[in-house]
Design goal:
Radius of gyration: 16 Å
Order of helices and strands: HHHHH
Number of strands: 0
Strand content: under 5%
Mean pLDDT: 95
Helix content: over 70%
Distance between the termini: 49 Å
Number of helices: 5
Largest sheet: none
Length: 160
């Protein structure tokens, strides 16, 4: 279901939902790479935990497609691809002693993008009166917000 011109709020919502699915799939892949690049067991564990949550978020998005009676599909997410490329570049350039700080910083940037994506989706689904979809998307937003806070706290510990 490729559409070049978005002509209605429903078109925009459908497109943003497709991008969100790609965003979460990209995030899941990036979390594996961040886990491998991290130095400490504690930070690696954080990335594994967030990967588990990301799988739940993907399931919630699948349910949103069902609730909205839309075929499940994806759309390109250049933003998450760019965030992942930036993280990869920083990891390659960083000394091993900085790896935890670099990986946490990269993950935090991705979380902020995901938070804004969910905020937009929630507003659009609420406007359409799709209460069940709002509930699922809010659950994802809450997890993303909590993860952002955890990452920030761990990063603060590292930088002092």
């Amino acid at each position: 279901m490729s559409q070049t011109t978005l002509e209605s709020p429903a078109d925009l919502l459908r497109f943003q939902l497709r991008v969100a699915m790609t965003m979460e799939e990209d995030s899941l892949a990036a979390l594996g790479e961040l886990e491998q690049a991290a130095s400490s067991a504690d930070v690696k564990k954080m990335f594994r935990h967030h990967a588990d949550e990301t799988k739940e978020q993907i399931e919630n998005l699948r349910k949103v497609f069902q609730v909205l009676e839309l075929p499940e599909s994806t759309a390109a997410s250049p933003s998450t691809k760019g965030i992942a490329k930036q993280a990869e570049s920083l990891i390659q350039r960083s000394a091993p002693a900085l790896r935890d700080q670099v990986t946490l910083s990269a993950a935090l940037g991705n979380e902020h993008y995901e938070i804004s994506a969910y905020q937009s989706l929630i507003l659009a689904t609420r406007a359409q009166g799709a209460v069940d979809a709002v509930t699922l998307l809010t659950a994802n937003l809450d997890q993303e917000t909590h993860t952002s806070e955890e990452l920030q706290q761990k990063l603060q510990e590292l930088v002092g």
